Amino acid sequence: MPRILLAIESTCDETAAAVITDDGIVLGECIATQTELHERFQGVVPEIAARAHLERILPVIDQALKQSGVAPCDLEAIAVATHPGLPGSLLVGLSAAKGLALAWNKPLVGINHVQAHIYACGIGKPESIFPCVGFVVSGGHTSLYHCESPAQWTYISGTIDDAAGEAFDKVAVMLGLPFPGGPQLSKLAEKGDPKAIAFPRPMLDDKKRLDFSFSGLKTAVRYRIAGVGKHTWGPSELPDQVRADIAASFQQAILDCLIGKSVQACKQVSVNRLCVGGGVASNRPFREQLAVACQRQQIELHIAPSELCTDNAVMGALAWEKIHLGQFDDLDLDAQPGLLRRR
After folding, report:
1. Per-residue pLDDT tens for 37-63?
2. What's the 3-state SS for 2-41?
3. Cβ–Cβ under 8 Å, residues 277 and 136
4. What is the rounded average pLDDT of the residues 4-27?
């Protein structure tokens, strides 16, 4: 009889629940998105996200359980992402998890959302992905970690300003693209020439630092669109090919930085295995170019399946690592919104 847990995810704008066995089999899963709620604001509004989680959390959990055919009495534990994330969103998921743990008399396990993105690379695989360099690339995070084991990981470096996904979304707004901007920009980039514009690759040539910086690149795109000192173009006034070339050239600049620094990190910590997760990891050119770069450098590459790159509850399977170590949490467990470097 497999061991089974219920995992809950509500760190940002996806309300998700999954029922997962200890060998990585997903018995049931449900995700409720909020894209339509935030579209008019061109970004996630924390208060709206929290209210939407509150409305959807129990129906999502109920649907995941019904799909799995698992009764609450068959669960071994309740897992929930407690950090990092939006404060209100985190509290909705955590409160639901605490209530169910108390009502069903099940242990509670809090997990790190960022670490779970890395763990998603190995779900269902027969061999462990650890030790590795873990790389999380999303709308909120661009961070590198030295992951010695599922329970031992050390922050290496990250962005000093915008996350990569955040830069994608902001440039998409500049180009007049609909929300969510990142995927729309990547789609537009397919029609453009990635070599058309020589945008900067911030910090890529600095071999001593592994940090990322994308605010200057974002500004370079702004100047390219509107000119320096005076307005010359608006998004709707740009010729279609120019918009596509800007998108493609910007995307390539981002990818060059992500690939260069992640390969450099593997060399610096002397680990020849790279595991990549997060929303930007679903970007097709990124996956293809990173695979070529890792093959060239003889680095073993694991990228999370596309469906597990964006926020989901399946990656809550990370909780099994804590369960195997007997690490459970009390009902006074609290959310820690800004905790980005927790081991």
Report:
1. 999 998 899 999 999 999 999 999 999
2. CCEEEEEECCCCEEEEEEEECCCCEEEEEEEECHHHHHHH
3. yes
4. 97
**What is d(CA 101, CA 99) in angstroms, rounded to the nearest whole number?**
5
Compute the distance between CA of residue 37 and CA of residue 249 in angstroms, rounded to an integer. Answer: 30
Residues 237-259 have a mean pLDDT of 96
Tell me how far apart the alpha carbons of residues 262 and 278 are, in angstroms, rounded to a whole number. 14
Is residue 158 within a helix (H) or strand (E), and if so which, with residue range?
strand 152-158
Which domains are delineated in the chain?
Answer: 4-120+309-324 (3.30.420.40), 125-306 (3.30.420.40)
Residue 341 has pLDDT above 90, yes or no: no
Instruction: Pull the structure tokens for residue 292.
Output: 């070529």
Beta-carbon count within 10 A of 19 CB? 26
Q: Which residues of 108-122 are buried (b: 16+ CB within 10 A; e: fewer)?
A: bbbbbbbbbbbbbbb
Query: Which stretch of 10-19, 63-72, 235-244 has the lowest confidence by average pLDDT?
Result: 235-244
CA distance 11 to 164: 18
Q: Which residues have a Cβ under 8 Å from the Cβ of 208 and sit 6 or more positions away? A: none
- CA pair distance 6, 293, nearest whole angstrom: 37
161-178 mean pLDDT: 95
Structure-block tokens of residue 77: 């534990």
**Which CA distances in Å does 231 have to 223, 226, 227, 241, 249?**
9, 5, 6, 20, 21
Please write the tens of the pLDDT for every residue from 277-315. Answer: 999 999 999 999 999 999 999 999 999 999 999 999 999
Query: What HEC string does 245-296 produce?
Result: HHHHHHHHHHHHHHHHHHHHHHHHCCCCEEEEECHHHHCHHHHHHHHHHHHH
Residue 333 CB-density burial (10 A; 0-12 exposed, 13-18 middle, 19+ buried) = middle
How far is Cα 72 from Cα 159, in angstroms, rounded to an integer?
41
In degrees, rounded to 5, the angle at the alpha carbon of residue 160 between the alpha carbons of residues 177 and 258 is: 65
Among 13, 79, 24, smallest CA distance to 49 is for 13
Q: Where are the alpha helices (DSSP H) in 31-160?
A: 35-38, 46-68, 87-104, 113-119
